[in-house]
Each structure stands twice: as C-alpha cells, then as structure tokens.
Amino acid sequence: MGDAILNALGALFEGVRFLFSHGGPNAIMIAVACVMFWLAIAKGVEPLLLLPIAFGCLLVNLPLSEVMAAGGVLKTLYDFGIGNELFPLLIFVGIGSMTDFTPLLANPKLLLFGAAGQLGIFLTLLLALALGFSKEEAVSVAAIGACDGPTVIFVSNMFAGLGKIPTAMVGALAVAAYSYMALVPVIQPPIMRLLTTRRERAVKMPSPKGKVSKAALIAFPVVVTAITGIIAPQGLPLMGMIMLGNFMKVSGVVPRLANAAENEIANIATLFLGLAIGGTMAGAQFLTRETLMVFGLGLVAITIDTVGGILLGKAWYLLSGGKVNPLVGAAGISAYPMAARLVQNEGQRWNKHNYLLMHAMAANTGGQIGSVMAAAIMLSLLKGLGVI
Amino acid sequence: MNNLAFGLTMLIVGMGGTLATLFLLTLAIRALAAFFPVRPGEKEDK
Q1: Cys-Cys link to B32, which of A59, A216, A357, B43 (CB 3.0-4.6 A)?
Q2: What is the ipTM of this complex?
Q3: Contacts of residue A364, Cβ cutoff 8 Å, sequence gap at least 6
Q4: What is the pLDDT of residues A149-163, one digit of tens each?
C-alpha cells in the first residue's frame, strides 16, 4: 500500500523530474512562449496569430506533454489543417474578402511595384543556398520575403509533408514571418529615408484619375485566377482562394458568405493554425542554429523587398521627370494595409499636403498579388526543375 | 543541378516571371477597363 502511494506520487512528479533532468530546451521554449504572450498582449504584435502560436508552444513544451503525439490535440489539428495545407488557404479566402482592389484597378501600372517588392524572396533564396541550406529549405526561408504568413506556411509545409524539411522548421518560419510582418513599421522607415532624398520623399502625386466599374471589379478576380492557373498552376490554390474571397465580396450577391469568410472562417482557421504551428515548436527540435539563421534571413528578405520597391520607385521618379514618389515603392510588399499606411505617413512627414494613400494602397494590393504570384511561379519552377 | 545554378535559375526566371506576369496583369486590367467602362449613371467605385 505504502509503495503504491509512493509510486503514484512519483508519477505526479515525473514532469518535474523530466524538467530538471533534460528539460532545458523545453524551459527555454516556455520562456519564448512567455515573450510571445508579452509581445501579443502588451505590445499588440500580431496578437491574432502570436497568442495561439505562443499557447501551442507552451502546450507542447510542458514536460511529458503528449499534445503533438499521435492522437494528441495539436497533432490532430496539425494533420487536419496544416499537413494538408487547408488552414492557410482558408485564411486566404478571408484575406481576399478583406482586400479592396479598387485603387489598383484605377491605377494598374502600380502593380509593378508588387513585383519589385518580391526581390527579397529570390535574393534570399540565393543567400540561403550559399549558407548551406538545402534547396527546399532555402525556398521555404525565402518565402518569408513574401511578407505573407499563409504563403510561408503553405510552401514550407509542402516540403515538410514530403519529408524534405524538418516539421519544426515550419514553426520557426511561421513565427519569423508573422514577427517580421508586425515589425514592418520598424523595418521600413529607416530604409525609406536612407534610400531617398528629401526632395524625392516630398513629391506630391495627384489623385488617380481612373474610374472603375463594378463589372471590372467582378471580372478582375476571375481573370487573375485564370492567368495564374495558366502560367503557374502549382500556385493556383493560393491565388484561387484569395480571389474567391474577393469575388464573393465584389459580386455583392453572397454577403453572408463573404462575411463568413472574413470573420468566422478566417477566425477559426487562424486559431487552429496558430495552435498547430505553436505545436511544432518543441524545444528539442526548434532550438537549432538553423532557427536562428531563419530569423536572420527573414529580416534580410523583408529588407531587400523594401529596397527593391524603392529602387523601382526611384527609377520611375527619374523616368517620369519627378512625378512619382519613390516611397510608394515601399508599399509593394504584402503587409496590407500596414505598408500603405506607412508610406502615407512618411510622405506627409516631408510634405504636409501629400496624400499618397491611394497610390500606396494600389502598390500594396499589387504586393499581395505579387507575393502570391511569386510563390506560385516559384512552385511551378520547382516542379519544372524536378525538385518537387 | 548544383545550388548556384539552381539559385540563379530561380532568381532570373522567378523574378523575371513574376515581373512579366504582373505586367501581363496590368494589360489585363486595362482591357477590363476598356471592356467594362463606367456607364453613365453607374455608381463609381473610385
């Protein structure tokens, strides 16, 4: 009887024993989860994603946790919606429904900023390869340059499913992507000021004159989906879902579906995705040199994206005889609408009569399309090269 | 294919492809504006 009581008590303290014997990585990750809680709650850094990711991270790192073992709650969520890439795609339906492409359709040439804003993806890919990452790992890391969490998860998880990258890397990539998206207001302004002159930043751009009919707005998502399907079919799920969400919204005939995509579906998918991603952050697998490099390369990717956009802006400024404000190029990334607001604020800082918001919104929605298109093209190239 | 050749291929074809596709999309948007102009009396979205 006495032995049985002691054994039972011993079982209760098994977790404590584990923590003190070889739970160092778990303890570090629990601390990381607490930092993420602080960032989400006290600093408002991407709380919708960071809070569930942090909680998933906490759950998986508590000693002897079985939440990511076969049949565990986070493993079930992972298999249900990350392993098959469902959750990022559902979030994309919501993003599409929240996006207004009107400024872009009114000023389509600004879509080209959305291409320049993807330079970071491809240069970071080269850098990651040079640092010794495998092709699949390098592509996954480079996807952080898309400034788009669901895209990063979609691409990296495809490789994790094929056993080409460790599952823990998906978590690191997702956290890096969302962290840097939240840090865009910190990362971009110094680059904007460094690469442009006072005179360039003060350039006033007139309001876009183009008018957009409802029929054009409705046809736009269908056309983009068709073009993506023809040119880069591997990325069709990504572009198709974002355009589906937008199509439902602009058609005006299914407000309930559009609202559901924007709210309930996006919210539920965000919660489950965050928890499941947090579940991949088990200390023993997460705390590696590669994780640190992922964070470093992610910062490089977003910096180069911004540089690419601004350099195109500067070229455009010269070619147009000073009519285009190069700051607008910085909005050619996918962080919507944050990057556009930053450009507006920065423009007004140097010229109080400057209203760049509509131009920046056009470039920013161009960046959304550009990031998904770049990922789609990258996946199709990988298929063509026999990597996937 | 070695890593350098792979990376350069992805950079050139990937970045070039993205730029070309988005340029194609700008043409498509212009075509949409021509096919579906704002009709007199229609509430403009811009």
Answers
A1: A216
A2: 0.90
A3: A331, A332, A333, A334, A335, A336, A337, A339, A340
A4: 889 999 998 899 889
